[in-house]
Amino acid sequence: MNAGRYAGKTVWVTGGGSGLGRAMAQAFAKEGAAVCAIGRRKEPLDETVALIESAGGSAFGIACDVRDPERVEATAREIVARTGRLDVLVNNAAGNFVAPSEKLSPNGFKSVVDIVLNGTFHCTRYAFDELRKARGAVLNIIATYAWSGEPGALHSACAKAGVLAMTRTLAAEWGQFGIRVNAIAPGPIHTEGTDKNLWSIADVEATVVKQVPLGRLGETGDVSRAALWLCSDEANWVSGAALPVDGAHWLHGGTLNFRAAYDAYAGAAPEAQKQ
Ligand code: NAP
């Protein structure tokens, strides 16, 4: 598969064995990239590679825990040994769970910060030399609660806020090398991770859908399409951006929750507007 926006390029996707990471790996491969998917478990990575190869694309998996800087450095070297280059790094790997902050253990907080914040730093740090040569791009997958906060997921909100700061800092620091650094903040989407940690909670899905102004949960393709654009030359003057891809969910319909109140308000409006 040589045609496409990413023909001849190498893309590294962390957490590429499931969910959004797998979908982005498939999307970049469909556009011609050689894709390296990493994660701790080998089997899901093998499945991602098989899916890509069966569609005519090129991919390989490397078992790597992003918390381990030496392993990450070796992985970066292996990617370059196998493909000769690195054009795009997608920092997507994450762990999460719901817990009231007063019951959150120090270890629970630390594990999520280690994966999300330290892991993103490790991969970005060891991708730098090759990204500089390629005048490449980093894409960090965050969440809109990096700026709004997220009651019940303090660990993840703090980690994602750190990654947002990293995105902006490196966009400013590495622009001189031609490296662009951006973030996507996905809204609620069914994946392996959220099926286990979020959608399993009673009534959450129905409640969340009502909060999305565009009226539906997201699909993995919504995020992949934005990722393809942000990392491509079509976005070559976009850096330091944090793009919500969430159906405007983070705005929650505004203070009035206007969508829910719309019918009642519409009837009252003519009188109210006479004041
Ligand atoms: P997911 O299905 O749980 O995928 C997370 C991936 O990260 C897994 O493949 C996992 O593989 C990998 N991973 C976890 N710890 C790792 C480690 N220490 N080293 C290497 N890889 C590791 O989650 P998802 O829903 O697709 O989420 C993808 C990204 O989108 C995350 O950054 C998440 O915060 C963000 N996001 C998702 C949503 C949503 O609704 N889905 C909303 C907002 C933001 P292993 O377990 O094999 O390591």
Under CATH, the homologous superfamily reads: NAD(P)-binding Rossmann-like Domain
* Biggest sheet details: 7 strands, parallel
Low-confidence stretches: none
Overall geometry: globular
**Oligomeric state of this protein:** single chain
What is the arithmetic mean of pLDDT? 94
Bound ligand species: NADP nicotinamide-adenine-dinucleotide phosphate
When the domains are counted, the total is 1
Q: How many H/I helices? A: 10
The fraction of residues in strands falls at 5-15%
| Rg over CA atoms | 20 Å
State the end-to-end distance: 65 Å
Name of the CATH class: Alpha Beta
In which order are the strands of the major sheet placed? 3-2-1-4-5-6-7
Q: Which H/E pattern describes the elements?
A: EHEHEHEHEHHEHHHEH
Provide the CATH architecture.
3-Layer(aba) Sandwich
Q: Could you estimate the helical fraction of the residues in percent?
A: 40-55%
Number of strands: 7
